[in-house]
Write a structure and sequence with these properties.
Structural class: alpha/beta
Mean pLDDT: 94
InterPro entries: D-isomer_2-hydroxyacid_DH, D-isomer_2_OHA_DH_cat_dom, D-isomer_DH_CS, D-isomer_DH_CS1, D-isomer_DH_NAD-bd, NAD(P)-bd_dom_sf
Family: Belongs to the D-isomer specific 2-hydroxyacid dehydrogenase family.
Number of domains: 2
CATH topology of the largest domain: Rossmann fold
Distance between the termini: 19 Å
Keywords: NAD, Oxidoreductase
Radius of gyration: 23 Å
Strand order of the largest sheet: 8-7-6-9-10-11-12
Protein name: Glyoxylate reductase
GO cellular component, one term: cytosol
Strand content: 5-15%
Order of helices and strands: HEHEHEHEHEHHEHEHEHEHEHEEH
CATH superfamily of the largest domain: NAD(P)-binding Rossmann-like Domain
CATH class of the largest domain: Alpha Beta
Length: about 350
């Protein structure tokens, strides 16, 4: 049974939540810790974020919160940074590790939701679903059916090139098999033969994958090596009839180069769920082309997925502040310090 002194020590720990999060977060954390939170769905200003980090033992943040050296320099009490995302490039992980701060994320739970959205975008783009909806909704459908009306492209028997063959890339491959697609993949490390056989996938160098695929789907983490990996020069290697889909990180695709390629009809179309700057700036060149489908970062946007992300993120904060190893540790080399 917990003693009064240990209960007091736990209650003295403060956790800062940078947003309103789903119900599991408060249910897991509020009985144990002092909670301060941003009650808005909008990000707090930099000064306010830093003032809370200075006093926090635990931090639950999002991709929009920059937890950099400046933030860590004033985080005298911070023991854990839990990000409500798979990506963690908004956190200075190396610096946090050197300070003995645990960094955790929410992998696995959003794999299926993101893979589903990837296929939704592929279908909507290739079968011109949004165009068709707008035609009807805007009362512009003024001719009956005729043989060449609103023709799109099949997925069946087409080649899908998956760039990044981790959890989400493999989940996309699983769905592609159901559509009868041929699967090519590129990865920094070639996967085992057993994984290739399981997903009926064949490895290709990146340039060859781009040249041979009818659909190219990006599923990479953002690193120095992947930043703007899909440049204008790379896009030009694709078939003129091919489509590009990105549901990973916006900085991986050169947006200006993609807009140029679309404007010149060097590829058939693109669908993006992530962008270099979010929300997308009104001056973005992506808004000046027609053969593109844009969604506002919906990869994990299902009720069940966001609920499970909250459970995972909050549980890891609870564990670390109670002196227990977290489940989804990013920086496995973190220097242990008394908690």
């Amino acid at each position: 049974m917990e003693s009064e002194s240990s209960a007091s020590t736990v209650r003295d720990s403060t956790v800062y939540l940078t947003r309103k999060f789903p119900e599991p977060v408060s249910r897991i954390l509020e009985p144990l810790f002092e909670i301060t939170l941003n009650h808005s769905d909008s990000p707090v200003g930099r000064d306010e974020l830093l003032s809370h980090i200075e006093r926090a033992d635990g931090l639950l943040c999002t991709l929009n919160d920059q937890i950099d050296r400046e933030a860590l320099d004033i985080a005298q009490k911070l023991k854990i940074i839990s990000t409500y995302s798979v990506g963690y490039d908004h956190i200075d992980v190396e610096n946090a590790t050197a300070r003995g701060i645990y960094v955790t994320n929410t992998p696995d739970v959003l794999t299926d939701a993101t893979a589903d959205l990837t296929f939704a975008l592929m279908l909507a783009l290739s079968r011109r679903i949004v165009e068709g909806h707008n035609l009807v909704f805007n009362r512009e459908w003024d001719m009956p059916w005729f043989p060449s009306f609103m023709l799109g492209n099949d997925l069946s028997k087409k080649t899908l090139g998956i760039v990044g063959f981790g959890r989400i890339g493999r989940a996309v491959a699983k769905r592609a098999r159901g559509f009868g697609m041929k699967i090519r993949y590129h990865n920094s490390v070639k996967v085992s033969k057993a994984v290739e056989v399981e997903h009926d996938a064949t490895y290709s160098p990146l340039e060859m994958l781009l040249m041979e695929s009818d659909f190219v789907s990006i599923h990479l983490p953002l690193t120095d090596k992947t930043r703007k990996l899909i440049s204008y020069e790379m896009i030009r290697l694709m078939k003129q009839s091919a489509y590009l889909i990105n549901t990973s990180r916006g900085m991986i695709v050169d947006e200006s180069g993609l807009a140029d390629a679309l404007r010149r009809e060097e590829i058939a179309g693109a669908a993006l769920d992530v962008f270099i700057t979010e929300p997308l700036a009104e001056t973005s060149p992506l808004l000046e082309v027609n053969n593109i489908l844009l969604t506002p970062h919906l990869g994990s946007a299902t009720v069940g997925t966001r609920y499970r992300m909250g459970e995972m993120a909050a549980s890891d904060i609870r564990n670390v502040l109670l002196g227990i190893e977290p489940v989804s540790l990013v920086n496995s080399g973190v220097r242990r310090r008394p908690i």
